[in-house]
Input
Amino acid sequence: MDELLEQFIVEAVELVQHAADDLLALEREPASPGHIESLFRSVHTLKGSVGLFDFPPLQQTLFAAEDVLTLANRAGELDVAAIDPLIGIIEWTERCIAAIAATGALPDAAPSEGAALVAALAPKTVEVEPSAASQPTPDWAAALFAAEPEGRVAIRYVPRPDSFFSGDDPVALMATVPMLLAADIGTVAPWPKAQELDPFQSNLVFEAVSAAPRAQIEALFRLIPDQVALVGRPSATAPVVTPIARRIEQDRRTIRVDVERVDALVDVVGELFVAKNALTGLVAEARRLDGGLPLSRVIATAQEDLDRLSTRLHRAATGVRMVALGETFRRLPRLVREVSAQLGKPVDIEIEGGAIEADKAIVDALFEPLLHVLRNAIDHGIETADIRAVREKPARGRIRVVARQVGYRVEVTVADDGAGVDIERVRASAVAKGVVSAEAAAALDDAGVRDLLFQSGFSTAAQVNDISGRGVGMDAVRRDIQKLGGRVALDSEAGAGTRVTLSLPVSFAVTRIMIVEVAGDRYALPLEIIQETLRVDASAIHPVRAGEAVVLRERTVPVVRLGQLLGLGDIRRNDELLLVTQAAGATVGLIVDALGDRLETVLRPPAGLLKTVAGISGTTVLGDGNVVMVLDLEALIA
Amino acid sequence: MTIDISADRIVLKGRCGVEEAEPLLTALLDDPARSVAIEAEKVHTALWQVLLATRPQIEGVFGDTFVARHILSMLRDQPKTPTDHATTPGSGPLQRLDRHGAKP
Output
């Protein structure tokens, strides 16, 4: 495909998303100038970009949308009746772009569809307002233009008296106006006596004229449109800013890089860590040589430097891959709107924590599972309006999606205020579908029953519909999340709602690990879970019911033998090597045969067959080239 | 603290934020004869306002061209009469734009 067209598709997808976000925000609050302006910009840029290619129906339709938005932008308010047709246009545009991406051309029906969409918008386009060109130029602007023949934009900026409190620095802002030809500073009111001056209240008026394109000046003052008046030179001498020019302006600060290139970089950094680990062995070997101590010290120093640099390199390289969760979250409101319309259940969605960042692979892969969870929430969780009325709940259902960072993990919870999981119905349904036997089902407690929801092929929808209940439910969610090295939990309160928590790693980060030996095999444990290592006399380990425990500083700590846990058999000794670990919020003593090196490594999520093995959080390559499995103690003990 | 106040001189240093406007004004009220040396890399509008309203003797050169051209020149050119000149029309660049209560 043509490179320019590829670039267009990437941008168009983003612009459509921006436009959709703003439209949804405007649906809740039609008089929101910020959203109208941002919507106008997206549609305007989109139309401009489409103009570079030969897609007349798309361009004409966007042109009509831009017209409506130009008026709305000037009025500071969008006609509510225009929102649905505009959403229609944006959704259709999205489909067109998908078609262009797939086939390089618009769908056959595009001309008629486009015309219908424009017609739906038409009643609003007849109110014609005088165009900007016919408005008289104010005196102050005329004077500035007369003094500066090169001037394109006249600026009059009157900071609000309390603008310092909003963090504005008007002089600093004026100093950034590009191509400033002239400026004057005046006062709103004469200066009072010094004793009466309020130093925190702005009393300034700035008037200036610039030769820069209007769009640049607008961008500068975009946050304070109410405090600034911009007037373009009245004649046609000011060249129109083309979308391309504006795009070049935007592109100056960012570059688009193919994810594969970034990945290649991250991979090499991962290998660097492996190569670096070999030095640990070298230090020990040098020390064993006769008179090798100085050499081993030199190597150790070099290793420290390499450690520091490779950690920085890794942070920089993975940082490139970090994107905000918002990239996935922003697609959710539209989805909820769509599903809630299909099911006739009005639902509001609230999203928090979109600024939290995680690896792009994780953020991207989060969409599918979130989609399932949201569909389930609306379809199975949120009650119909009549039932909600009976239960004295607000007519509109509420779903909150909240992300927060917990250490090196990000936790996304999706909570609805619906009916909660109907334990008896799930139990009955699981038996009916043969997921579990009647006896086994009867023996399950509530948590056990809720866990049945994660079994494959489970669906509780009384009627099968195309929203959810197609057998791709929570089992698919759990599978997807586990693939990313994450976990899913579901809890629910009858009548009050359901909460699904997805817990994921922030990135495939550098993890400090400790090598342990059990029955001749080597495994790795994350160093962060190890609190201390002790030698404990065998007699201090007491059998407690089915297990064992040891008393440490007057606390009873359960003891687990790693060999036994992994099914490798266990060797008893007179003094046992005990690792005191913190897993799943509990302290657990872990008995191993021997301790190995402490290393830093880039942990890769388990791939292939290992993915299906519980209790393994990843693999890593040691300096000697051997692969060891990194154990997920929490999952092993559970 | 980015403003240094001595008996006859006030020095603005580093990055002078909005919160420094009050001490600056107080220092100039205490002794209007104090001169102000500007050695700062950044000075918030609130401080420029205090200087514009009180018109002390200014020393130093401020690197920023907008400030140098439009504010320092005004501070240097104007006579040291803080309040009365502002109501006399046409006596300098400040008055030319003096539109009371104007809004864009």
In short: The first strand of chain A starts at residue 153 and ends at 157. Residues 124-134, 236-251, 460-471 of chain A have pLDDT under 50 and may be disordered. The interface with chain B takes residues 156-159, 164, 168-172, 174-175, 177, 180, 183-195, 197, 199-200, 202-205, 207, 227-229 of chain A (CB under 8 Å). The radius of gyration of chain A is 32 Å.
